[in-house]
User: What shape does this take?
Amino acid sequence: MRKNKAVFAEAVEDILKDQCTPAVVRAIDAGGSAAALWDAVAGAGFLALLAPESEGGADLSLAELFPVLSHFGHYTVPMPVAQTIVARALLASQMIMPEGMITLASAFRRETGGGITCAFTPYGLLADFVLACDGDALLLLPCAAARRQATGVNRSLTATLTWPDASSAARAPRGGALLPAFGAALHAALLSGAMSRVFEMTLQYCNDRMQFGKSLGKFQAVQHQLSVMAEHTAAASMAAEAAFQGAGKAPSLLAAAMAKSRTSEAAGLVASIAHALHGAIGVTEEYDLQLLTRRLHEWRMTHGSEACWNKVVGEQVLAGTLSIVDFVRSV
Assistant: This one.
């Protein structure tokens, strides 16, 4: 059975190669419909990857889920598929599962007058529902009842959503404590997948681009930059994958914190090196690099930047009695 489950990552990639092309991503980023791409992914049953087999799901372990999420980042999927997979797992057996896209709230605030605000929600312009952490409980908020405010960043699908009150929300009593760790680990996986593609594109460009009679990749200064980029990409991938280890059904908060911290730290460095080595072509609308690096910068901040999660890791270190070396070994 474990061997059979490995094919899910391959099947996801096959669909994304065909359906999630740069042209499709550009169209959705520009405000076009995501229905066709959503139907292709949802229709193949990928939204139930974490659901038990008895309920028609694939019952994937966290380790088996990681390469699937990484592919979503690699192909810059412009809709909350990864978030919906996690949301459906958190809501399982607690309510009738809603149809449509569910995103995870990065922030949740109750206003003085009873309203609710979820600031800078990933895919807030597209999602049908927002799943938010309210203490130990979860709130499922319909986006149709909210006021959506775009960030103003060009082609960003992130938005701040505001509800006048909680009357339209459905409440699930469990799972709230798991959402922050899932949100951080999920975006670490997306970041690692996107960074791997950025590195592949940059390496290919440096090997193909000729300057002074030889390829850019033959210059020592360029090789140095590529090696730094490769180092951060590999470290980010290992940190992200580590968050999806273990027998549990949800990532641990500490592992997720370390993963999101390391991938967020690497994201800005990888993006800057990629643009430096590509030169002027890297910032053009027609070239695909910007589809990835825009998301690296956005996902770096989503569900906490490295500064946010470094504090969590530091508090864990200071609260224990282990030396820093033994702490790292224990994690």
